[in-house]
Design the sequence.
């Protein structure tokens, strides 16, 4: 199994006053320093409401999957459902597979 950490970054665009108020009221709950990579994605931003991140941990059984593409689709869906206006999204990916394998290796290996 391959494990990837994907961060999708974007910019808030055209937020309604209601959405801006809702996001502002919960900004402390979405702070970057209390976030983590999760299968469903973790939404992070600060009170300035300029930029945001969505952090995904994607586990894949096949080498031909596109974890970054999958995370971008998930992020688009998340933002659409919440009606959060945004600019173009971009994804950065880190393959955690080797680190996980090394971390789980026994000392005798």
Sequence:
């Amino acid at each position: 199994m391959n494990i990837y950490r994907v961060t999708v970054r974007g910019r808030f665009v055209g937020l309604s006053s209601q959405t801006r108020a809702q996001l502002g009221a919960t900004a402390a709950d979405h702070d970057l320093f209390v976030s983590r990579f999760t299968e469903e994605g973790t939404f992070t931003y600060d009170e300035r409401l300029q930029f945001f991140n969505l952090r995904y941990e994607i586990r894949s059984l096949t080498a031909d999957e596109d974890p970054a593409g999958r995370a971008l689709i998930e992020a688009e869906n998340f933002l659409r459902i919440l009606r959060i206006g945004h600019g173009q999204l971009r994804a950065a990916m880190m393959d955690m597979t080797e680190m996980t394998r090394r971390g789980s290796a026994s000392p005798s290996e």
About this structure: Residues 67-81 form the longest helix (15 residues). The first strand starts at residue 2 and ends at 11.
